[in-house]
């Protein structure tokens, strides 16, 4: 059996898990997934994420954020609420936050303004950021460089680029600045050779595993609901792409995740 895996990004609060959430967690454990980070995309989801983490403390922790889909809901009051929530032991990160120039209906300027405020919050309160980026890597790089330009590193990772989808240059930039790269189901898709090469070039030392459940299922179950028990397929394909054994890939990505979230 391979070393325990760590799913660093799941949305188990999604209604798609309403009927079998407990069973989903048991299947994850049976598949060798020992840790899961539950992601709450908006304040309306924060309480449920904390409750899930509190109910299964050995298995789950959570991140609380504001997805770029909802960037127009950003306010100083939201930051004050977040400031109180990050004191809870269940909350290990802020996210997901970021930029989406493909599907978000919120304007780019509004997204950038909210993202930079939230990212500065992560910097100031020394919390890792879980960053969503779709079709916006140029702006992402510019904002990351500006926010963290005078940082004094206190930990190995500043955060993670969730479901990394950039090119090889983006991968190296994010890695060198101090961000982990999240690897999801798309690494298993036949046409994603460029993504696999970018991840290999960045190296296993900055990679973490994700499912983004219930979204982005790996190749064997395209079109179906994804869940954390599918993580071994992602790990197996990533190990092959990086030219390392599955046990080594599992051990190193889990160690990266533990350091990322301070666990």
H/I helix tally: 9
For the largest beta-sheet, the strand count, sense and barrel status come to:
8 strands, parallel
Question: How does the overall form come out from the CA principal axes?
Answer: globular
End-to-end separation: 23 Å
CATH structural fold name? TIM Barrel
How many strand elements? 8
In sequence order, what are the helices and strands, one letter per element?
EHEHEHEHEHEHEHEHH
CATH architecture grouping: Alpha-Beta Barrel
Give me the side-by-side strand order of the main sheet.
Answer: 1-2-3-4-5-6-7-8
Q: Class, according to the CATH hierarchy?
A: Alpha Beta
CATH 4th-level superfamily: Metal-dependent hydrolases
List the helices and strands and how they pair.
Elements: E1 5-10, H1 21-30, E2 33-40, H2 43-55, E3 60-64, H3 76-85, E4 91-100, H4 108-124, E5 129-134, H5 137-147, E6 159-162, H6 168-177, E7 179-183, H7 193-202, E8 207-209, H8 231-242, H9 246-261
Parallel strand pairs: 1-2, 2-3, 3-4, 4-5, 5-6, 6-7, 7-8
Give an overview in words.
- The chain has nine helices and eight strands.
- The chain has 263 residues and is of the alpha/beta class.
- The protein has a single domain, classed as Metal-dependent hydrolases (TIM Barrel, Alpha-Beta Barrel).
- An eight-stranded parallel beta sheet has the order 1-2-3-4-5-6-7-8.
- Strand 4, helix 4 and strand 5 form a beta-alpha-beta unit.
- Helix 4 runs parallel beside helix 5, helix 5 packs parallel to helix 6 and helix 8 crosses helix 9.
- The two termini are 23 Å apart.
List the main descriptive attributes of the protein structure presented here.
263 residues; TIM Barrel; 41% helix; 8-stranded parallel beta sheet; alpha/beta; globular
């Amino acid at each position: 059996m391979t070393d325990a895996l760590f799913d660093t990004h799941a949305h188990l609060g999604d209604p798609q898990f309403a009927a079998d959430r407990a069973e989903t967690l048991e299947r994850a454990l049976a598949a060798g997934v020992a840790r899961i980070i539950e992601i709450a995309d908006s304040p309306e989801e924060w309480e449920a994420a904390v409750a899930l983490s509190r109910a299964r403390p050995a298995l789950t922790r959570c991140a609380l954020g504001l997805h770029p889909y909802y960037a127009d809901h950003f306010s100083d009051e939201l930051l004050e609420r977040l400031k109180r929530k990050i004191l809870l032991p269940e909350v290990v990160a802020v996210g997901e936050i970021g930029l989406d120039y493909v599907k978000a209906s919120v304007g780019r300027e509004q997204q950038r303004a909210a993202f930079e405020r939230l990212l500065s919050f992560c910097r100031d309160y020394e919390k890792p950021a879980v960053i969503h980026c779709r079709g916006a890597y140029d702006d992402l790089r510019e904002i990351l460089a500006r926010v963290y330009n005078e940082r004094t590193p206190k930990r190995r990772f500043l955060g993670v680029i969730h479901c990394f989808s950039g090119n090889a240059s983006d991968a190296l930039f994010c890695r060198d600045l101090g961000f982990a790269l999240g690897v999801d189901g798309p690494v298993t898709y036949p046409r994603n050779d460029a993504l696999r090469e970018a991840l290999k070039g960045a190296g296993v030392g900055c990679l973490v595993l994700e499912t983004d459940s219930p979204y982005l299922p790996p190749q064997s179950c395209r079109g179906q609901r994804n869940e954390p028990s599918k993580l071994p397929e992602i790990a197996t394909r990533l190990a092959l792409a990086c030219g390392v054994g599955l046990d080594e890939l599992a051990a190193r990505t889990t160690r990266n995740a533990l350091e990322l979230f301070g666990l």
